[in-house]
Amino acid sequence: MCFGRCARCIGYKLLILALLSIVANILLYFPNGETRFASEHHLGKYVECLHGILGGGFLVLIPAAVFIGLHNDDCCGCFGHEDCGKSCAMLSSVLAAFVGILGSGYCVIISALGLSHGPYCFTRLERNWIYPFTESSGGYLFEYNKWSECQEPQNIVQWNVTLFSILLVLGGIEFILCFIQIINGILGGLCRLCCSHEEV
């Protein structure tokens, strides 16, 4: 049925998005490809939340695997009807989609907070490691002339803005896909149940 094909299609897309989220989050730990800032604990608090690795990554890989594996569910069904077993599989995929919603939602929220809060950096004015843009509530994103306040890591504002934005978009797409699968799973499960009852 088309519901199963739709679920598998969503599963493959979620798989790709989850892997991209993991990569983007790992890159946040290494500004400009340097490892010393992570080892010296000079990373922002939202960088260390694992929102791309755990939220948009592993918690989205779970529903992705479930959706992709739906075509392997050749359950013998209940009362001798194969469609009943498959409808239960479609309805159970809704639970997996809720896990994906939680993970992608966490990724979106932390990414938005990371963008709003700004990077943790060494500034030329304070001569110390601080969050120079916390007061701006995200306004610094459009004040490019202030980005040079951060001296170390070099280009940290661009690095954070780019990667947090990517994670925000990836998490948002994952959230939408999981929500679509909730609707798809409910409709697919109920339609199969109705069809199996009609055959009885």
From TrEMBL:
Provide the membrane topology annotation.
Answer: Multi-pass membrane protein
Principal localization reads membrane
Where does the protein end up? Answer: Membrane
Cite the Pfam families for this sequence: L6_membrane
Keywords in alphabetical order: Membrane, Transmembrane, Transmembrane helix
Protein transport is among the record's keywords = no
Positions of transmembrane segments:
12-30, 50-70, 91-115, 161-183
The terms describing its cellular component in GO are: membrane
The UniProt similarity line reads:
Belongs to the L6 tetraspanin family.
UniProt name for this protein: Transmembrane 4 L6 family member 1
